[in-house]
Amino acid sequence: MARLQLRNVVKSYGIHEAVRGVSLDIDDKEFVVFVGPSGCGKSTTLRMIAGLEHISRGEIAIGDEVVNRLGPGKRDIAMVFQNYALYPHMSVRENIAFCLEQQKLPKAEIQQRIATAAETLHITELLDRRPGQLSGGQRQRVAMGRAIVRNPKVFLFDEPLSNLDAKLRVKMRTEIKRLHQLIPTTTVYVTHDQVEAMTMADRVVVMNKGMVEQMDEPQKLYLKPASKFVAGFIGSPSMNFLPARLAGEATDLHLVLEDGTRLAVPASRADDFKHHLNRSVIFGIRPESISSHCDRPGWVPIDAAVDLVEPLGATSMVYFNVGKTGLCASIDSEFAPKARTRLPFSINMNQMHLFDPETERSLAC
């Protein structure tokens, strides 16, 4: 187990920079998830940590050792891949034992490590089967077992649940998180699924276009996104964004939307934005911060025509327009309206976000 540090790491392919100056400190025993859209550089960064990609510039240190010039086998890491990478002609026991045999460990120690890992992952009864006789979830456990027995300094997971169905993915992410509690090894996990990132991580690294947009605890990313990109990527459904203008005085602020709708800014949020008076902004509000009519403090009423309703069981997604901009509200299905009806909504301005239209950075930071 060890601390992991990336210092201004760059990966170039010709003139294209896939990773652009990433600097991170990952603490010993911490579970960190890299998340972002396809092509953002998260898997490339993971592969550089593993030694599978050459580092164009910068340094990567595991513990106190800079590992730039060390091959994958000398970095004391264990990696779990998306495609499991199991040997089809070997039994589960032989797959797990293979890396230990390459290290020429005593047979008794190898068998003890296999037994311990198999018990931890509940695959003891599968040890004599071959990968072709296993389900996707069982094969993923075997791949994890092969990593566990190495007792590495760092675990690396490269989208390990992408090939599983939705129900099994939920079960496996719970098992991976529980496994980390049992074996608290420094872990870096890559996914494109923000729900996986939010539910599993101690801290989340949100990447975009080869750079780190924000690194923070999941709930802080949700409540205080540093940019419009983070605000839109974290949370499901995605945050609503509307062009607006911040007007008024320091003690009496309001947002003017493009259709002329005026939304009062609560006094509790005035200090966050009082230095940005009389300027264009991007107003962000999450679907769960919009409700059917509510008269609690900080909730501002608006009147809108419902365009579409998507029932999802306990909640319903309700779509409507403000000016030319479409919004989504997440509403208790018991109070969900019918499509093509007009009714009052309320926006919780206590949970509003404002972003700079040019830089797209949060004005509250």
Structure characteristics:
alpha+beta; elongated; six-stranded mixed sheet; 9 helices; ATP binding; Rossmann fold; 365 residues; 2 domains; 35% strand; OB fold (Dihydrolipoamide Acetyltransferase, E2P)
Characterization of this structure:
The structure is a single chain. The chain has helices spanning 42-50, 92-102, 107-121, 136-148, 166-182, 194-200, 218-223, 228-233, 267-273, and strands at residues 4-13, 16-26, 31-35, 57-62, 65-66, 77-80, 154-158, 186-191, 203-208, 211-216, 240-249, 252-257, 262-264, 279-285, 290-292, 299-311, 315-322, 325-332, 342-348, 353-355. It is built from 9 helices and 20 strands. The chain folds into 2 domains: 4-233, P-loop containing nucleotide triphosphate hydrolases (Rossmann fold), CATH 3.40.50.300; 240-355, Nucleic acid-binding proteins (OB fold (Dihydrolipoamide Acetyltransferase, E2P)). The chain is α+β, with helices and mostly antiparallel strands and 365 residues long. The radius of gyration is 25 Å and the shape is elongated. Helix 2 runs parallel beside helix 4. It comes from Sinorhizobium medicae. It is found in: Cell inner membrane.
